[in-house]
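Sat 14:20. Reprocessing the chain from the morning session after the first attempt stalled halfway. Input below, unchanged.
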Amino acid sequence: MTLEAIGAVLRRWKATGEEGGGVFFACPDLVIVPEPGVPAMTAALREIVAQGVRDTLVRLDD
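Finished this time. Tokens:
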């Protein structure tokens, strides 16, 4: 996915309230938080925990 496509997904989720209201986008080796700063990261981590850490934060093999 391009950054523009990820941005579109996050904007849609923010508007619809899906996936925690777009506070993060994740795939197996990446988490994107659309806003800078500790409060945004805290919101993203809270939503990740609420959704189930194992579903989002996947341990990668060395």
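The helical segments are 3-16, 19-22, 38-51, 53-56.
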